[in-house]
Design goal:
This protein has 206 residues and is mainly β. The strands form 3 sheets. It has a 7-stranded antiparallel β-sheet, with no helix packed on it. A 5-stranded antiparallel β-sheet has the order 3-4-9-13-12, with no helix packed on it. The protein has a two-stranded antiparallel ribbon with strand order 5-8. The radius of gyration is 18 Å and the shape is globular. The chain has one domain: Chondroitinase Ac, Chain A, domain 3, CATH 2.60.220. The protein is 11% helix and 36% strand. The chain has helices at 8-21, 157-165; strands at 32-33, 54-60, 65-72, 78-87, 92-94, 106-113, 120-124, 129-130, 136-141, 167-171, 178-180, 183-186, 191-196, 201-205.
Length: 206
């Protein structure tokens, strides 16, 4: 069972404060890569199919809400969780049209797999913003990617190196550069978590 964590924005703030107190340089800017220089992690050949390629749920200002996408189990029913978005009570900040959320206001959120054979998701409505002090929390499992992560037919040290480098990356719009998020990679559980402050596309990549 993975450990309970604080929101990554709090972890990052603490790290920056510590670095500054030691006279060190604050956290470097995020890593940005064009699509051609990034490998989105594929699911292994023969992976379990998706139970549904999308999920919709209402997020409400003042309430904790969440939505998840699942794989099928061996008999076509709902199996293991694939991706989950948790929207805490104070997370909703601004609608795509720029208006702010008030207590009790709601929005219909959609999580959809862009590609059924790779770990790549689209979140709607595009332009929805969360409070940076109370970000939404995204978790994606990559167990169905198997152990041969680079798909060269051999499971070896290269796959171990790839696993350690995996992170969640954000792509604002199709074709845009990807931005690496501050992620927590629970290697034993084969799951990665990150805080998100807005909607676009997200992938596990290296």
């Amino acid at each position: 069972m993975r450990p309970i964590r604080l929101p990554l924005v709090m972890v990052a703030a603490a790290a920056v404060a510590l670095a500054c107190s030691d006279g060190a340089t604050p956290t470097a800017p995020p890593v940005v890569k064009p699509p051609g220089q990034l490998t989105i992690l594929p699911l292994a050949a023969g992976h379990l199919p998706l139970y549904a390629d999308s999920v919709r749920f209402w997020a409400v200002k003042g309430q904790n809400r969440e939505g998840s996408v699942y794989f099928q189990d061996g008999s076509g029913g709902r199996g293991e969780r694939y991706a989950q978005l948790q929207v805490e009570a104070e997370a909703l900040l601004q609608r795509p049209d720029g208006t702010l959320f008030g207590p009790g206001d709601s929005v219909l959120i959609t999580l959809k797999a862009v590609d059924p054979d790779s770990i790549y998701f689209e979140f709607r409505p595009a332009g929805l913003k969360f409070d940076p002090a109370h970000p939404a929390q995204l978790s994606i499992e990559y167990g169905e990617a198997g152990n041969d992560l680079n798909e060269d037919g051999i499971v070896n040290q290269q796959d171990t190196v790839i696993q350690k480098s995996l992170a969640i990356w954000r792509q604002p719009n199709p074709g845009d550069d990807f931005v690496q998020l501050q992620s927590v990679n629970f290697e034993d559980a084969r799951e990665i978590e990150a805080d998100v402050t807005g909607f676009s596309r997200y992938a596990i990549a290296y």
